[in-house]
Amino acid sequence: MSIRSNKDIILLNPQGNCEELFGKLQLPFSVIYQNVPMDYALPTNPFEFANSSVVVKLLRMQKPHASLCYMNVKRVVSLKGEIIRLPRTRNEAISYFKRLSNNKHKVTTAVGIRYEDQLSSFVVQSDVTMHRLSEKIIAQYVETGEPFEQDVGYNIMGVGQNLVKKIDGSKYNVAGLPLDVLRTFLTDKKIIAVEKGEQVHGN
Questions:
Q1: Whole-number pLDDT of residue 203
Q2: Could you give phi then psi for residue 40, rounded to 5 degrees?
């Protein structure tokens, strides 16, 4: 697919595989990191939490230029509607995967963009079913370090793919960025353009 960018795209505080996946669009982009205060009381619903998070961060970012397109991504993992806090220690990671073991959880991703002083966003949700994970497998995976490098606690583009039994929905969403939906979204907003004769399909 041949696409071009109509605006300079800047990823704000990307996490996990976000940069690598966005690179698959073969579009030029830059990355900036800012400490954006998040003292705003966010909803507890995963869909609303993720969406509110990207909107607030884009609204509160420092010195945005109207001619640039800023993009922020927020992902959360939830089990039976409850957002699960990401593990920060080895013991937390072990407990995290014990909860996900042999269960279906939801990965919710919100993507927001800010350009020309306008804000737009979308949310994608995918259901992920984990294998039954033994204590040995969990311990071995935690030792890889991947749980602490990803914004959902595991990496299906790495060793973590062996933990996943089934994905219902966008695999890219679970990997780090719902590319198919993003392409359509950016095209509709005229941030990118598809070369004549090409088509963009959403997921």
A1: 43
A2: -75, 135
